[in-house]
Predict the 3D structure of the following.
Amino acid sequence: MPSRSPTATREPIAKRPGGRSARVRRAVFDATLARLVSDGYQALTIESVAVAAGVNRTTIYRNWPTKAGLILAAAKDRSEALISTKGSGDLERDLVALLTSVAEYVTSPIGRALVIASLSEADDPEVREAREDFWRHRFQAARDLIGAAAGGGSSSLDAGVDGLIERLIAPLFLRAFITGAPLDGPFIRDTVRAALRVPGSGGETKPDTTMG
Amino acid sequence: MPSRSPTATREPIAKRPGGRSARVRRAVFDATLARLVSDGYQALTIESVAVAAGVNRTTIYRNWPTKAGLILAAAKDRSEALISTKGSGDLERDLVALLTSVAEYVTSPIGRALVIASLSEADDPEVREAREDFWRHRFQAARDLIGAAAGGGSSSLDAGVDGLIERLIAPLFLRAFITGAPLDGPFIRDTVRAALRVPGSGGETKPDTTMG
DNA sequence: ACACAAATGCAACTAGTAGTGCATTAAGGA
DNA sequence: TCCTTAATGCACTACTAGTTGCATTTGTGT
């Protein structure tokens, strides 16, 4: 086996992006995510994706040599406009809305499947980076909300913003993937209120924003 | 394929637990966890476990018909004395120690592999229950610590204990499995302090302790 | 419209894994 | 010690992943 990255694709040297290739690409990506949701990561086979997409196995193998690379490409292709960053200025309300959106994602079949798939390939540097990148963007949305509201009143939020964001988002993941407890409205509200009640001390650890 | 549970084992009707069977059992469990750490869940094959254990594949297939069941049995077999529940009475110190122990688990190869394996089989009721059971016990240890300290001074901890525990443990998981940020000492200390600083209001959501 | 080449389809092949019937070994009781 | 049978080992089949050579289709520039 040649020493290529497990998530390598043919895309960088694609010379015919139009017409048939575009149709194939879309059909394969749609089929990939559909099968990922219905079968889960490990049970997903290239064969089943090919059949669902109305495409030959060989085509998929040539364009996306590995399962992880295929799912990663399909996920990236669909990762747009998933988040509404614009806040009303009411910090608590905006954070509840943000966490509700994240909660919907991590409880949705596609969100759960993608998180689990990314963890199943935790050793693949590209997969790891893609996952951390995805959440880095979401964290940035939270930073924007808090930053906007901080100018409008709430003090003591300067130093510990990243820690605050962690304390907001983390309980959602714990319930969604570990304990299985429900992510309902009251839980989200209480999580936001608890996080906001913590006085911003100077002793906060700066979370590693490079997520290395 | 008969409609048996994917994690069924032969154990309940085992009639010869001594001698050879015991040796096989131990060898298989050790090999299973070793391969799980080195290869990961999806790449783990029964064949590789059998070779590592010096046992025939057939033996494994008959005793533990599925990969998930095998790993689950191996994990249960080793899930003893992983936790030190006894506290000193100093709540903050005890919680830091507890979180440090959890942090070591979720960053260790075996802990990571087990969490990921349990998520890869999220649809299997037995796997889900085993995972939730495991963490329920750890949460109980935290409850004991807090309960002991609560009698000794700290008030306002009665109602929101479960929420507090969630806010203690959750950031560890977020960093370990999502963002990849480090789980160092300062981070753990700050997590404990932030959680303890939250005034215990009456508005807390009772987390579903059945973890359904 | 035509030609060239890229991209896909097809078929055959290798390799490796899951799973099963039958023979063999050895545990536990008499 | 000997006998029964539970437990294990061996040999085999079936299936799936993944690869390759070649034919076919189809973009794209001329």
Chain B touches chain A through 49 residues (CB under 8 Å). Residues 172 and 178 of chain B are 10 Å apart (CA to CA). The longest helix of chain B spans residues 125-151.
